[in-house]
Structure formats: C-alpha cells, structure tokens
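Hello,

I think I submitted the S-adenosyl-L-homocysteine job twice by accident. Can you confirm which output corresponds to this input? Input:
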Amino acid sequence: MDQLPIFFNVNNRCVAVLGGGIAAARKAELAMRAGAQVKVFAAQLCEEFGEIKESEQFRFVPREPLAQDLDGCALLYCASENIEQNRKVHAIAQEVRIPCNVVDMPELCDFTMPSIVDRSPVVIAISTAGTSPILGRMIKARLETLLPAAYGRVAAFVGRYRKKVGSSLESFHQRRRFWERILEGPVVDLVLAGHQAEAIAEFDAQLDAAASGAEHRQQGEVYLVGAGPGDPDLLTFKALRLMQRADVVLYDRLIGKGILNLVRRDAERIYVGKLPQEHTVPQSEISRMLLRLAQEGKRVLRLKGGDPFVFGRGGEEIELLAEAGIPFQVVPGITAASGCAAYAGIPLTHRDHAQTCIFVTGHSKDGQIDLDWKVLLQPRQTVAVYMGLEHLAGLMRSFIGKGAAPSLPVALIDNGTRPNQQVLTATLDTIAEKAAKAGVKGPAILIIGSVVRLREKLDWYVPEEQAHEAAPAAAPAAE
Ligand code: SAH
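Support: Only one job matched these inputs. Its output is below.
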C-alpha cells in the first residue's frame, strides 16, 4: 500500500485554502461539507464560489497566508493557479507542520484527495495513489451504480440503534449475529423503500426476540424477480441485489447461464422448467415449493424471464404466499417485447406508424387462439405476440382470414438480446415458411406492423459471436 487510508475529522476545525479558482472552490466546498471552518486566501474569488461564500463556515482573506495564519489549521490545500505561489505557501506549511495538499503536484502532497462515493454517513474513498485519477473516477462510477442511493438512510437508521443494541445484547457474538441478520433482512428493504414505521416495528421485534434469547427462526421470504429477456446487462440493480442474497433459486428454461452465474454462488439451484421426460413442473407445484421453502426460513428467489407480471403467471405464484402471510417482493424486468424490439432496431411505437402497441399471447390449448380480433386489427398499431412460434402458420392464417393485409410486415425475433439472436423479417403470408426454413427453435417473439420496416434504417445490433464469425479469417500467426 502506497498511502495510509484514513478519514479525517475536520468538523469545526479550520481548513485553509490557497487560491480563488475552480479547483480551490471545490476543495473549500468539500471541506465545508465535512463541517470545517474554511479560510480562503486569494486575490479574488471566481464565480464557482457562488453560494458557499455566503455560508457562516466561510471566510475570505484577500492576501497570501502567513505562517501565523496557518498555524493551528487542520489542513491546507494549495490550489492556486500560480504554481510558484503554491510552492511558496507549501514551504510555509512545512514550517508550521500542517498537512498540505498541492493540486497537480503529487510530489509535494502530504495527502492526496480520493474519488468519493458519498452515501453519508457511509463514505467510500478511492485512491490510485496519484497514478490515475481517471481510473479512480471510473471505479467511483461503478460503485455509484452498485450502491442504492438510499444506503445512507440505512446507515443512519442502524446508527440510531447502536447503543440500544449494545445494552440489550451482552455478548459480542450475539451482537454480530444480530446485525448480520438485520443488514441482510427485511428491515433494510423497508428502509430502502421508505417505510420507516414498518422498519422500526420489524427492528424492535427482532431485537426483543434476540434479547429474550428466544431461538430466532429466520423469517423466510420470496423474491419474484424479472430477469429480462436474456442479456445479463438488462437486469435491474434490485434484481442483482436480491440474486446476491438468495439461499435458493427456482429458475426455468428462459433463464440463461449468464444470468444464473450472477446468483449467489452458494445458493441452492432448483430447475423447474421442463423435466427430462418433457413434463413441465405444474404451476401449482411451483407455488407450493415457494411456500414450503419460505416456511423453512429460506430467502427464496424465483427468477422469471422478462417481467414476472407479463405472461409470467407471477400473480399465481404469489397468491399462495399472500394467503400464508409470507413476505414477498416483486421486481419488474424488461419484458421480451421491449428488449427484443430494441435489440432488433424496431421501435414499438412511432409517430408515423403506430400510436398503440398491444401485447398478446399466441398460446392456445387446442390450436385455436382466443383473441379479440377487432382490437387486434386496429390500424396504426403494433402487435407483439408472445408464445406464437408453436402455431405460427395457423396464427398468421388467422390474421389474414380476419382481414389483415397479407403484405403486413412481421418480424420474428428468436433468442432476442442473447448472443445467438436471430431476426427474420417477412410478411404475414411468408413468415411461417421462412421461420421453418431457418429452423427457429425459440424462445421467439413476433412483432407485427409497419414499424418493422424501420429496422432497415435503425438496426445496429451485431451479436458479439456473429461479429466474430463475420470477421474475415485472420492470417495464420507466424510461427
Ligand atoms: N414474462 C416474460 C414472458 C414469458 S412467456 C416476459 O415478460 O418477457 C414466454 C415467451 O416470451 C416466449 O414464448 C417468447 O415469445 C417470449 N420471450 C421470452 N424471452 C425471449 C427472448 N429472449 N427472445 C424472444 N422471445 C422471448
């Protein structure tokens, strides 16, 4: 380690800043956010000092600092645009022995400034020891997206209980187990969702149980999570967070390896898609499994393709849980229609083509689909058909038979958003034959309507694997 990471308490202490430019303003503002009394030494202040110079924490001294000005200060930032002036004042700081940071001159710095992810009271500081501030900022950007913005609220919430927990639970071990349970459990979700009163009630109940020595049986819960159409990048932050927390995951055919790999490594995995004898696990059985696992005290993740509430039978899966009083959360996902449309370059609505978009299922028990054709054949509308591959030819015949133009454009998107995405475009009267020739296996979605023509102009997606295949063969490497 090149430098010692520490967090410095400057609350109510004096922090000196040399310079009146933008860099100086940033340093002054940061120190003030941490509660410092800031003294800025400069000939004049730039506009960047706008509001901060009105604060009671701020003092402007329109001259260079002397040794007696700096003596007793907690820190000094030399952020003048004049390099010689920075050097000179740095030398004074050395005399009076206060830690000094000189902007853009790491060799003169007693400390460097990290990139900061601020979820106060949680603060993450990233240092590259001056080697690459840009890399530091990129890491910061990643962390910013990983940590829910409301994490600060969680820290503030548990912070208020520290003393109470300390006096209620005697052993260090007990306290640690208690905090682990709290921070991984429903209290945090309640705080993040802004349900303060419920969070307090749940916290108190758990603390009472822990203090009375009652054998704590962890409350099981279920997360019904939409995993999107396939590309792991299309998961939501919330989905990822719950995937990392689950004890057991139930998944089916629509969930690819890329997504399953993101589930907590030691979580138990249960496949509930088609079994080897081609029997699908019945819906009622899945619902009962969710209930049983939650009743065992497990955190159960039910991963669904797309969005759980769009042709996902998500409502049925949680009915039993609701009746049994098992806590559950539903996390939306990107549904196949919007994921596939975007990755195929087909806007579902467009000012010149379609003002409405309708999602229907082409699935039917006896091969006859029960659709409201009057609604379906409205002009200036896009129709997205889920589960339409099995009876594709019959379905297309029905469209034409009910009055749709045989030349209406259709796109069939197979394995949309995945590396093996395949997009076939044709018309109502030709798509079935084209799909049969291409040997499309699904999952596949149909998009019907004149928006399909826009694909020629808008398509940009080249799945990575196809891009490699399409690349001219490289010359054999010289040996
Ligand atoms: N809840 C899901 C839909 C489940 S029904 C969602 O919101 O997307 C299953 C149907 O979804 C499939 O038959 C297919 O029509 C469609 N589908 C799901 N994933 C797909 C994908 N990656 N590419 C194309 N269609 C997909």
